[in-house]
Amino acid sequence: MFGDMMGMMNKLKDAQKKVEETKKRLDTVLIDESSNDGSLKVTLTANRTIKSISIDDTLLEDKEQLEDYLILTLNKAIEKATGINEAELAAVAKEGMPNIPGMDMFK
After folding, report:
1. What is the mean pLDDT of residues 8-19?
2. Which PANTHER family would you find in this protein's record (predicted)?
3. Distance CA 33, CA 3 (A)
4. Is residue 43 a contact partner of residue 32, using CB atoms and an 8 Å limit?
5. What CA–CA distance (Å, rounded) separates 22 from 15?
6. What is the pTM assigned to this prediction?
7. Are 21 and 88 in contact (CB under 8 A)?
8. Residue ranges per domain, the chain?
9. Which among 43, 44, 42, 38 has a CA at the least distance from the CA of 58?
10. CATH 3.30.450.20 fits domain 2-100
11. Number of other residues whose CB lies within 10 A of the CB of residue 67
C-alpha cells in the first residue's frame, strides 16, 4: 500500500511538472484577432498576455469607436486563448492523474 501511495505521489509530481511545462509553452502560442474591418489588430498568448495592439490611424479620430473595437476584439481574442489554454491544461492534467478511487471525474 505504501508503494502505491509513493507511486501516486510521483505521478502527481510528474503531472504538476507537465502542467508547468505546458504553461510555459502556451506563452509561445500566439492568437491574432482583428476587428471586422481590420482597422484594429491584437495579438496575445494562449496564457492571455497581450503582446501587441495595432490601431489604424482612422480609429484615432473616434475615441468611442476605438474603445468599442478594443473591447470587442480583445474579448474575442481572450475567448480563443482561454479555449486553447483550458484544452491544453485539461489534456495534460487528465494524462497525468493517477488512478485514485473516487477521483475518476478527471478521466
Report:
1. 80
2. NUCLEOID-ASSOCIATED PROTEIN YBAB
3. 50
4. yes
5. 10
6. 0.75
7. no
8. 2-100
9. 38
10. no
11. 11
